[in-house]
């Protein structure tokens, strides 16, 4: 049975008769539809009018009238009646024109219609208005087919035989009738009828299986196959899409008909498989076509929709005979664009797609074949290290290929195979270079080059990150640099902050002041500072304890009220005057071994109160009592203070203020704990102390001389200025009240100096606490004194600060 295989090359081997359809196979459909049919329509009336009396016209008119009657009898839709012979010429012609147009609009393949069309087209061909279109691969294929002994070419078309002869006799490729052994039209039968093909084979005088029928219509191919004739479908641009599963080989060029037996055995043996395609090309004489085929119009296999590509073209077998089919097609497919100029000679209004194969019908097999070949050739195991080399090679190959391609095209035009040259030009003596580079190889090399370029690009993409790394490192380094710069700025800012006095930690400051204030070097300044801090903590604790004890003692005193009127009054005074006096009350219960600063301070008041009690005076009367009971020593101290103040150089005033400032700083911290008490007791205490100071001052006034004498003895200038100033400050308020609390180890001057120093702050207190020579007094005592002095200082500060000092001075 025919078509047992879809390998066109195998079929070709079995066939000697090539039976060809015209429209859609050798000739573009557009030429028929857009050129021939319109020409017939436009000229049918005039043709009938002018040729009405001709026998051909009479016969065709008679056939058309008969057909119309049959159609009417068969109730064919749209049938147009043709007036009888008895009708006027005009009426008959009018009816004929209408009938022809109707049939043509329906693309009827009726014999009478095709006859009339042929008659009309003949005028066009004769006038030179029409030239039959054939694809460029037609003539070479016919020539090649006919070149084999015993092989013939026949035409089977719905077009009339006359129309067929006109077309091929006056084709764009010249007179091709020399390659055609016979013509068949619908007179033998309809093209979709099996019997038609059987009749043709019979008429030809051959077996059906010796015939290969090429057509663009599947039903025609099926009818031919049914008759035992081999069939293949031809896909051309502009043809109707072929069904994807049509079980026929699909040709995109008649060049695929190249008979494998025609290859030269010598070249076949010498050439590798892919080169054998060159042999085939040469044998099929495709060089003449491929040489002028613009590459862009070469059918791109990848553009062909797979759904529209019937898988009827077998994949080329590894052997040399299977390959050429695809390769030949590629070469010949590139030709249609070349036909445009030629078609323009024939077609006044050529359609763009009447020559180019439809892109949607490119065989997928073509793509697969190319990929396979490239893969096999390249072996694709390209190492990364060869990237550049590959690129260069690819580039070179690309350039070479393009150059060679151009050269080949130009050279191929004059070096086409001998047979082709002879057939085309009739010049059998034309030189035929045997080493002409086949276009197929060029195409193949180009494919390989493209493939390598793709691979190289991929590899380059992989290499790119390596190239970008330095840039990234630079960015990172810049970022690190910026970070380091910021850190440096921060460090510098911190250093600047450190140098700012406002940011100096209090401890180092205290150390500095303590060192300056210390009378002796027995204690380390750090120890003093630590002691102050510890004392502060302890003082806070004691204050809390004193408050608790105060409450308890008050309760006890209340019970003992009858027994100690003075105590009661003292409590009254304390309650009315200042809260610290509550502490003073508590101080009575505090063991002497653990005196607190408040105890010391309170004792001043306490003593005053006690003295006033002795005189049985009340709180209001205590003031003069205090003044009266001021001990001579107190007077002495007060006097000394005044003397010191008066004798203090002005230059020292600033230092005094500085020390005072420092003291105030420390005081501020201490005030936090005692602020409430102080605020409440401020007024009363101030009043009392003012009274005491006034009293002392009054008493000291008469003895300025003594004071002056004592100054050099007790408060020598050798003492630190701060100490002197502190003494002044402290003396102004504290007076001798604190003196008894100080260990008597030190001289009074020293004690006074130390105590007064305490007013200047913790450092001063430390210095005093360092107390120089009374280390065994411990830190507690120093802290007590400190706080006491500070409290006194607070009073002084709250009041006009210079009062205690200026008053004596002014006095
Ligand atoms: C002979 S050229 C005009 C072709 C024509 O009229 C026609 O109907 C084509 O039919 P085909 O069988 O060649 O497809
Ligand atoms: Mg056709």
From TrEMBL:
Cofactor: binding comment: Binds 1 Mg(2+) ion per subunit.
Compositionally biased tracts (Low complexity): 289-310
Listed InterPro entries: Enolase-ppase_E1 (IPR023943), ENOPH1_eukaryotes (IPR027511), HAD-like_sf (IPR036412), HAD-SF_hydro_IA (IPR006439), HAD_sf (IPR023214)
Entry GO CC: cytoplasm; nucleus
Keyword Lipid metabolism: no
Region of interest called Disordered, as start-end residue ranges on this chain: 284-368, 391-440, 541-784
Superkingdom as given in the UniProt entry: Eukaryota
Assigned EC number: 3.1.3.77
Main location: cytoplasm
Catalytic reactions of this protein: 5-methylsulfanyl-2,3-dioxopentyl phosphate + H2O = 1,2-dihydroxy-5-(methylsulfanyl)pent-1-en-3-one + phosphate
Pfam families: Hydrolase
PANTHER family the record matches: ENOLASE-PHOSPHATASE E1
Function comment: Bifunctional enzyme that catalyzes the enolization of 2,3-diketo-5-methylthiopentyl-1-phosphate (DK-MTP-1-P) into the intermediate 2-hydroxy-3-keto-5-methylthiopentenyl-1-phosphate (HK-MTPenyl-1-P), which is then dephosphorylated to form the acireductone 1,2-dihydroxy-3-keto-5-methylthiopentene (DHK-MTPene).
Descriptive protein name: Enolase-phosphatase E1
Originating species: Chrysodeixis includens
Phylogenetic classification of the source organism: Eukaryota, Metazoa, Ecdysozoa, Arthropoda, Hexapoda
């Amino acid at each position: 049975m025919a078509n047992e295989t879809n390998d066109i090359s195998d079929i070709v081997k079995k066939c000697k008769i090539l039976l060809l359809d015209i429209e859609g196979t050798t000739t573009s459909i557009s030429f028929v539809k857009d050129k021939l049919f319109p020409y017939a329509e436009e000229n049918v009336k005039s043709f009938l009018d002018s040729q009405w009396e001709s026998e051909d016209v009479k016969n065709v008119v008679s056939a058309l009238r008969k057909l119309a009657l049959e159609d009417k009898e068969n109730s064919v839709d749209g049938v147009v009646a043709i007036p009888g012979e008895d009708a006027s010429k005009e009426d008959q012609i009018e009816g004929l024109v209408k009938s022809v147009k109707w049939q043509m609009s329906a693309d009827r393949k009726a014999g009478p219609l095709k006859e009339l069309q042929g008659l009309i087209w003949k005028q066009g061909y004769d006038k030179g208005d029409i030239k039959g279109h054939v694809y460029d691969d037609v003539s070479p294929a016919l020539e090649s087919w006919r070149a084999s002994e015993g092989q013939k070419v026949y035409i089977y078309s719905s077009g009339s035989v006359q129309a067929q002869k006109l077309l091929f006799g006056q084709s764009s490729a010249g007179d091709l009738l020399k390659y055609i052994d016979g013509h068949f039209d619908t007179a033998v039968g309809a093209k979709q009828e099996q019997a038609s093909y059987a009749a043709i084979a019979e008429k030809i005088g051959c077996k059906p299986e010796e015939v290969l029928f090429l057509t663009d219509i599947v039903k025609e191919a099926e009818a031919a196959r049914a008759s035992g004739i081999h069939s293949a479908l031809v896909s051309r641009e502009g043809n109707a899409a072929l069904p994807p599963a049509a079980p026929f080989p699909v040709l995109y060029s008649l060049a695929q008909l190249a008979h494998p037996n025609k290859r030269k055995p010598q070249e076949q043996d010498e050439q590798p498989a892919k080169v054998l395609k060159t042999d085939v090309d040469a044998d099929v004489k495709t060089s003449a076509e491929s040489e002028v085929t613009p590459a862009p119009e070469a059918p791109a296999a990848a553009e062909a929709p797979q759904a529209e590509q019937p898988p009827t073209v077998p994949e080329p077998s590894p052997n040399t005979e299977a390959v050429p089919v695809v390769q030949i097609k590629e070469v010949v497919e590139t030709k249609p664009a070349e036909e445009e100029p030629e078609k323009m000679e024939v077609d006044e209004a050529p359609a763009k797609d009447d020559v180019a194969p439809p892109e949607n019908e490119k065989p997928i097999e073509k793509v697969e074949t190319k990929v396979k070949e490239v893969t096999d050739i390249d072996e694709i195991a390209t190492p990364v290290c060869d990237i550049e080399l590959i690129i260069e090679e690819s580039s070179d190959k690309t350039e070479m290929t393009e150059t060679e391609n151009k050269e080949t095209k130009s050279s191929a035009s004059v070096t086409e195979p001998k047979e082709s040259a002879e057939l085309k030009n009739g010049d059998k003596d034309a030189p035929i270079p045997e080493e002409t580079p086949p276009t197929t190889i060029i195409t193949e090399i180009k494919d390989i080059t493209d493939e390598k370029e793709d691979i190289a690009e991929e590899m380059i993409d992989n290499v790119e990150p390596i190239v970008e790394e330095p840039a990234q490192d630079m960015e990172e380094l810049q970022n690190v640099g910026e970070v380091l710069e910021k850190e440096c700025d921060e460090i510098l800012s911190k250093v600047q902050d450190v140098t700012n006095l406002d940011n100096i930690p209090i401890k180092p400051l205290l150390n500095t002041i303590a060192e300056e204030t210390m009378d002796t070097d027995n204690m380390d300044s750090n120890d003093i500072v630590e002691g102050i801090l510890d004392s502060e903590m302890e003082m806070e604790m004691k204050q809390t304890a004193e408050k608790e004890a105060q409450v308890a003692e008050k309760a006890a005193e209340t019970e003992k009220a009858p027994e100690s009127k003075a105590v009661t009054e003292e409590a009254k005074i304390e309650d009315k005057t200042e809260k610290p006096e509550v502490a003073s009350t508590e101080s009575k219960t505090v063991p002497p071994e653990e005196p607190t600063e408040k105890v010391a301070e309170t004792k001043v008041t306490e003593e005053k109160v006690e003295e006033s009690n002795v005189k049985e005076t009340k709180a209001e009367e205590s003031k003069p009592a205090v003044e009266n009971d001021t001990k001579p020593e107190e007077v002495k101290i007060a006097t000394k203070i005044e003397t010191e103040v008066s004798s203090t150089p002005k230059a020292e005033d600033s230092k005094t203020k500085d020390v005072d400032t420092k003291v105030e700083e420390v005081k501020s911290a201490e005030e936090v704990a005692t602020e409430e008490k102080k605020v409440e007791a401020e007024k009363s205490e101030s009043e009392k102390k003012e009274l005491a100071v006034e009293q002392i001052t009054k008493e000291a006034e008469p003895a300025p001389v003594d004071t002056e004498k004592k100054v050099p003895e007790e408060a020598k200038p050798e003492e630190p200025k701060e100490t002197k100033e502190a003494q002044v400050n402290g003396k102004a308020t504290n007076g001798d009240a604190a003196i008894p609390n100080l260990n008597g180890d030190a001289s009074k001057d020293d004690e006074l100096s130390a105590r007064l120093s305490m007013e200047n702050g913790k450092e001063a207190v430390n210095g005093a606490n360092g107390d120089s020579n009374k280390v065994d007094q411990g830190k507690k005592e120093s802290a007590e004194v400190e706080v006491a002095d500070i409290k006194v200082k607070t009073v002084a500060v709250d009041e006009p600060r210079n009062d205690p000092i200026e008053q004596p001075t002014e006095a």
